Amino acid sequence: MPVRPLPYESVVSDLRAEALAWLGEGVDWFDAHTHIGHRDPDGYEADPEELVAALDGAGQQRALVFAMQEPDGYRDPNDWVLRSCAESAGRLVPLARIDPKQPDAMDEARRTLAAGARGFKLHPRSDAFGLPHPVVEEVVALAGEHRLPVLFHAGRGIPDLGDSVIHMATDHPGARLILAHAGISDLGLLGPRVAGLANVLFDTSWWQVADLLTLFATVAPGQILYASDMPYGGPQYASMTMLRIARAVGLTREQAAGIAGAQLERVVAGEDLLDLGPAPGTGGLGPRVLGFERAVSYLTAAAQMTFRGSDPTEPLALARLACQAQAEREHYAALREVDDLIAIAQQRFEASGDPYTGVHAVMAAQVLAGTAAALNGR
Prior knowledge:
Layout: H1 13-23, E1 30-36, H2 48-57, E2 62-67, H3 75-86, E3 92-94, E4 96-97, H4 105-114, E5 120-122, H5 134-145, E6 149-152, H6 162-171, E7 176-179, H7 187-190, E8 200-203, H8 209-218, E9 224-225, H9 235-249, H10 253-269, H11 290-307, H12 313-322, H13 332-352, H14 359-375
Parallel strand pairs: 1-2, 2-3, 4-5, 5-6, 6-7, 7-8, 8-9
Helix pairs in contact: 1-9, 4-5, 8-9, 9-10, 9-14, 11-12, 11-14, 12-13, 13-14
C-alpha cells in the first residue's frame, strides 16, 4: 500500500491553501521522517520514487529517508536507501537504520556513515530494545563526533526514554537527537527540560491535536522539525497541520519556515542550529470552547478506532452532535466547518465500507476543532 494516504488527504486542500497563503512563498520544505521498504510486518511499503512523487504533489523539496522494519536485518536495506538517495538528485537524504541488539551494530553504523549516511534511525518498539542501552550510547557518540542526527521512534508502544535522552544530549552535545512523533512518549516530561538543550529536537509526524499543541506551546520552535511519516502519513495533511498548529500558538511566519525545512537543512549539514526564539507558551490558545473540546474527544476516538480496524460510526455521530453547540454562536461558522468534514468522513465510509477512506477528514476535523478558538479573528 504505497503512500496510502495520498488518495484521501486532498480533503485538506482548502485548509492547506489557507495555511500556505499565511506562510508565504519561497519556503523550502524538508521532511524529517519518511521510509522505504517492502517487508515491514505491518504491511505498509514504499519505493523512493513514490516518496519523490508525493513530495512533488505537495510542492515540497526534500526528505530524510530510512528503512522500514526489516526482519532479516538492515545491511541490504541501508544500501538500498543509500543508493536511492544518491540517485535522487538531492531530493532524498539517507539515514542508516541500526538495530543495537545486533553484534555488528557499530560496524554497520561506521560503514554506512562512510558510505554517505547523514545520521541514524533507531526504533525501540519494532527493534525491541530499551533505554539506556550501551550500543545506543555508542551510536549517539559516533553521531556526535560528526555533528549528525540520531532519530528515535518516540511515539506509541515504548516505555519512557526521556531521562536517557537528556543524559545523551548532555554527554554528546554534537549529536542532534530527534524524537519522532512529537515525542509523545515523553512530551510532558521533556518539554520544560529541553529549553537549555538545543540538540534535542522533535519531529511533527503525529496527528492528535492536543499533543501537537503541547509540543508547539512548550518547546522552542528551533527544536521542532516538520515531518510526514510517509508512507504512513501524507505530506499535504502533515504540512497543513503543522502550519495551523504553529499559527494557533502564535508563531511567526519566519519561525514556521524554520520548522518547515531551514532547521533540518542545518541539522543534516552538521551546522550550527538556528535560534528561533523561546517556546511561546499557552497564552495564545484562546478560550475553552466546549463544543470544540467535545468534538475533538469524539474525533480522536473515531480515528483511534479506525487505526485499530474498528467501526467509528458511533463516535463520528457524537462528534457531529457536539458541533450543534447553541451556546457558542460566535464559533458557529467554525463548528459548521468541523461538521462538514465529519460528514465527508461518514460519506466516504458509507460508500466504501472502509473507514480509512475517511480518516483524513476525521483528523483534519479534530485539528480544525482544536485550533479554531485560537485562530478566531486572526
